[in-house]
Amino acid sequence: MMRESGRFRLTPLGLITFFVVLMVISPLLIIVPTSFTSTGVLRFPPEGFSLQWYIKIFDRPEFVDSFWFSLKLAVLAAVIATLFGTLAALALHKYRPPGSGAINALLLSPLTVPSLIIGISALLFFTRIGLAGTFTGLLLSHILISVPYVVRLVLTGLSSFDYTLERAAAILGAHPIRTFWDITLPVIRPAIFSGMVFAFLTSFDNVTVSLFLISPSTTTLPMAIFNYMQESLTPLVASISSIMILLSLIFIFILERVYGLDRLFGSNSHSH
Amino acid sequence: MSKLARNKVWAALLLLVPSFIIIFGVFVLPMLYMLMISVREDGGTGAWTAAQYKLFFQDPYYIEVLWRTVRLSLWTVLACLILGYPVAMYMARATPKMRGFITFLILSPHLISVVIRNFGWVVILSDNGFINNTLLKLGLIDKPLRLLYNELGVVIGLTDSLIVYMVLAVATSLYAVDASLYKAAGILGASKARMFFSVTLPLSMPGIFAGTTLVFSLAMSAFVTPALMGGTSVKVMPVIAYEKMMAAYDWSLGAALAFLLLGSTLGLVAFFTKLVETKRHKEVFSS
Questions:
Q1: Residues 6+ apart with CB under 8 A from B203
Q2: Of A213, A248, B152, B278, which is least surrounded by CB within 10 A?
Q3: Above 60 in pLDDT, residue B89?
Q4: Is the predicted pLDDT of residue A4 greater than 80, yes or no?
């Protein structure tokens, strides 16, 4: 019964597994060929072959603009969240201040509340302090939802770090900054890097928080697609989605190579 | 406290300040402010009132929306459990390499925006979508099946995006099962069904419990999938909260709906936890 098998085996369990894997990847597998259709009908399998729906993206400035806007937002949110989250993780792990457990829970708390509710509360509060509909407001909220992932990843990266190495460096007369740069950083660099990529994707994919904080001049790409989809369903959505899928796949493969996706997901995380 | 220890605390605080500012300024304060708006008149400064909450519980429309949200979440949990459990069992019996491969395949779509995954489902499930086209061509049906823009569509979409949590939760609990238990059961002559019900299932209960609460909470607060795959007829709590906020500009009611959603989710999860604990308590003390 517990014989391990490396090859895929055609057992009832294997069949269900195959079906479930197919179910989660088929929506993505179907979009890409659909985008190359030469007709105006959204259909799988597509008819003909053309690049017209990729060329047509450029006729819709809202998609081009929101793409660059999303990219800018996600890069900024990822860099800032990575910096803040890494500092916080170092503080917790290295200095172990009183109440570390509570501080850790506080840092991860945005993950425990649905992002829809984070979005609504941010809209209400930002309206009061004059940040609603601004780039700053949107950026701050994206930093908030990314910081917990960075903290968790860097803490995991630090868990095996031996501080006697730092002490040895200090005894040998190394400056604390030099010690951090040459001793600590190389050990946690994969975790920090993965945190940054994950933070980027968290921001780049987000809809539920952005929903409440965008304005006509600050619209993200997923929001532009969401709005467009509610009015019309054309192969244009397929071509834009294919570009987003390609971009995300690049990052997913980087994550898998640097860190491993299974290590990335703890028991709790959500993106809806 | 020694000077060294005090210095350590100060250093830690200094490093924590940027994250604290973000958490307090963009999360803790806004949540408190939202609570104020929901329980006080004139945008959080006037007299105390429970009017928004009363309005919710006195209007059958809202009660129906809440019940629909709960019902769809429960169907999603059931679908995730029925489809996800066998996957977790398969993974538990596979080599580490195969485990890693399956984990990668079911996790990676998760890192692509839910808007795009739902769009893919629209292409598959719509009236002239892949499934209906195929069935029509094969002559198995003579008019398209309604798979989208109804509750079924929402459950399909939610199951697709949440099943990964159930699979990983159950798989983690199965990885921890001692393989010698199966050997012992086998030597004692247990059938495959007996092994499943006496060994696998009871030992995977913590995983089922974790997966269930996680999938349920996430399904309750999902907005994108009901909006894109449910159409205008399937209104759930997150969708009406959005409408009240962004279309009706009724922010007091929007804030109250946010808290009712959070409260009902936490309440039901607590109730479920209590139920499971009571059952376990009885099992331990009555046998």
A1: B173, B174, B176, B177, B181
A2: B278
A3: yes
A4: no
- What domains does chain A contain, in order, with CATH numbers? 57-264 (1.10.3720.10)
pTM of the model: 0.90
The ipTM value here is: 0.89
HSE toward the beta carbon, residue B259, CA cutoff 13 A: 19
pLDDT one-digit tens code per residue, B195-229? 888 888 998 999 999 999 999 999 999 999 999 99
Taking the C-alpha atoms of residue A78 and residue A28, their distance in angstroms, rounded to an integer, is 25
CB pair distance less than 8 Å for A87 and B15: yes
Check pLDDT > 60 for residue B161: yes
CA dist B156 to A97, B65, B229, Å? Answer: 46, 19, 9
Interface test with A, best of B1, B15, B98, B225 (most A CBs within 10 A): B15
Q: Which domains does chain B have, with CATH numbers?
A: 1-49 (no CATH), 58-285 (1.10.3720.10)
Hey, are the CB atoms on B119 and A27 less than 8 Å from each other?
A: yes
Give B103's contacts in chain A (Cβ within 8 Å).
Answer: 261-262
B101 pLDDT higher than 60? yes
Residues of B in contact with A13 (CB under 8 A): 86-87, 89-90, 93
Per the CB < 8 A criterion, the answer to whether A57 and A244 are in contact is no
The pLDDT tens digits for B177-200 are 888 888 888 888 888 888 888 888
Using CA atoms, how far residue B212 sits from A263, B68, B132, in Å, is 21, 18, 32
